[in-house]
Amino acid sequence: MPNNFITSLVKDFGDVVTQSASKAFNTINQAQSWADNPMGLMKGIRSVNLPTDAMPVFKSHTGATVKTPKGDNDWRVSLSIPPIMQNMPMDLLGPLAKTDGKMVFPFTPSIIFSHSASYNAMQPTHTNYPFFNYQSSAVDAITIAGDFFAENAEDAQYWVAAVTYLRTVTKMFYGNSENTGNPPPIVKLNGY
Fold this sequence. Notes:
- The protein has a three-stranded antiparallel beta sheet with strand order 2-1-5, with no helix packed on it. The protein has a two-stranded antiparallel ribbon with strand order 3-4.
- It starts with a helix and ends with a strand.
- It has helices at 2-36, 38-46, 153-169, and strands spanning 78-80, 102-104, 110-122, 131-145, 189-190.
- Helix content is 32%, strand content 19%.
- Helix 1 packs across helix 2 (38-46).
- By secondary structure, it is α+β, with helices and mostly antiparallel strands.
- Strand 3 (110-122) and strand 4 form a beta hairpin.
């Protein structure tokens, strides 16, 4: 049994070497024929990657689809839509309904949290340097920077809805309504 395996392995290796040598010989002959004719050399070099008879080779393409996870399995970064905005006309915000009523970032954004601590300087008598006493802490701005690519009409509509949503939730209420003068609504940041 081992002898048959070694024999077949040697035969396969010999076939590969013979095919490679044959291809190399054909390539050398073709290059030599191009080199004999200076006009044929550049023509030959340019035509190396052209298909036979200049007919394009058609390849089948597979379509990629993105499945939108539902419920607790959705770990994408998103901002919730507050209840007060869910009664708004949905002409511009309609595409957000496709993502479970949240504004979802299509690609993972950069999220920067910043915190600060305040200290008070206390200068006791007969000391050269002050002592610093902790006063308070604060959560500063949360900065989110993300990309939205619009490769088709649906992506562009979602981008318009996201920009409209972000502009709406960062402004106080105005106009003739019972909420006029109220601060912007509170939204929840979700993500893994």
